[in-house]
Design brief:
The complex is a heterodimer of chains A (about 170) and B (about 190). With about 170 residues, chain A is an all-alpha fold. Chain A has seven helices and no strands. The chains are: A mainly alpha (about 170), B mainly alpha (about 190).
Chain lengths: ~170, ~190
């Protein structure tokens, strides 16, 4: 079954996908079965990403302070440009009905609204201003040698875990 | 060339490269951009326990872990080979404000007065590392994404729930910065 597109996923695989799709935007169910080292495509882009994060000072607590204090355009420029470039890219991909390099149809899962985006968004915003980091910059700060951020990272893992444990009891 | 690369990169270069992540991930593997999910996959891989939310085949999302591993490696490379010896060019009003709170060391990306091992077992450390990190991990998962998944990927694909999430990120951040952080910084 390696390296070829095969039949529709089983009921079990669909249930697994549904679990992964909960509260996530970045999942996909490719029917391609690739060897693990194909994942280095993502690591390679991650490396470029990490360099950008550090060199444009997006991982800086100071830059996040400036942003929330409305005293610098830098972060708004970064996020605004990223959204514009992403938006145009998605438009072109959709208009051209572009396929992946392996010939698969491109699929962007729809995000459904729930109260989590309000409450969770607010909670994340509070944490973002304290730590000066969203999840991506946490990895970058550790990589850049700020070893104490490992504590913040472990705490973020714990936060994710606690959310998973109490998910059913929270308003959605 | 190398000297130019060592300077802080302008926002439009960084923004464009970050934005290009969206088509890159879609075109090479039908993946939608998002980073906070890596935290969930790590929970699923290491400590799934008996929690339904973590009981799935995390190996199918292994690409995400390669991506964040790459981010850490790239940051290491930038800090090792492209580091800029000058202090961060912080906006004057921010610098003046932080100085009133005793934060004036702008020689690193983050203030050494807060983000150092010496602060870990203090009230300040508890707030800035432990509580802050917890809010980031809990909040992003509850919201179903972070700045990358919602603000960039979600807005790029015109999903209005992502706009709601992005607005709430900003509301939370602004509330913390203006209402609560002034007290936390004096801890």
């Amino acid at each position: 079954m390696q390296n070829e597109i095969h039949q529709a996923p089983s009921a079990e695989a669909m249930a697994d996908l549904q679990t992964r799709e909960q509260d996530s935007i970045c999942v996909n169910e490719s029917t391609l079965d690739h060897p693990w080292w194909y994942n280095f495509k993502y690591a390679a882009w991650g490396i470029l990403f990490g360099i950008v994060f550090v060199k444009a000072e997006i991982v800086s607590w100071f830059r996040i302070q400036e942003m929330f204090r409305f005293e610098s355009f830098h972060m708004y420029g970064v996020i605004g440009t990223a959204v514009m470039v992403g938006l145009i890219s998605v438009l072109i991909i959709r208009r051209m009905k572009a396929r992946t390099i392996y010939g698969e149809e491109i699929h962007i899962p729809a995000k459904t609204f729930n109260k989590g985006q309000v409450f969770g968004g607010l909670i994340f915003g509070l944490g973002w201003a304290i730590t000066g980091a969203c999840p991506g910059p946490l990895f970058a700060q550790i990589g850049a040698g700020y070893s104490v951020i490992i504590v913040t990272f472990l705490s973020a893992l714990l936060g994710t875990y606690v959310y998973g444990a109490f998910r059913e009891k929270l308003p959605h | 060339m190398l000297e130019t690369l060592k300077q802080p990169w302008p926002w439009y270069v960084a923004g464009a490269l970050i934005g290009l992540t969206v088509p890159y991930l879609l075109l090479v593997g039908n993946k939608t951009f998002g980073i906070s999910s890596s935290l969930r996959h790590l929970c699923a891989a290491c400590i799934p326990g008996d929690i339904k939310f973590f009981k799935y085949d995390w190996r199918k999302e292994a690409w995400n872990l390669f991506f964040v591993g790459g981010i850490a490696a790239g940051a290491f490379l930038a800090a090792t080979f492209l580091s800029d010896p000058n202090p961060i060019a912080l906006a004057e009003p921010t610098q003046a404000y932080l100085a009133t709170k005793g934060i004036s060391d702008t020689s690193h990306l983050s203030p050494a007065e807060i983000f150092s091992w010496e602060q870990l077992f203090t009230v300040r450390g508890l707030v800035f590392f432990v509580i802050g990190g917890f809010l980031v991990g809990f909040g992003t998962r509850y919201a179903g994404g972070c700045t990358s998944g919602h603000a960039i990927m979600g807005l790029s694909s015109l999903q209005w729930p992502s706009l709601v999430a992005t607005v709430m990120f900003m509301v939370g951040g602004i509330a913390m910065t203006w209402l609560i952080l002034p007290y936390l910084l004096t801890l």
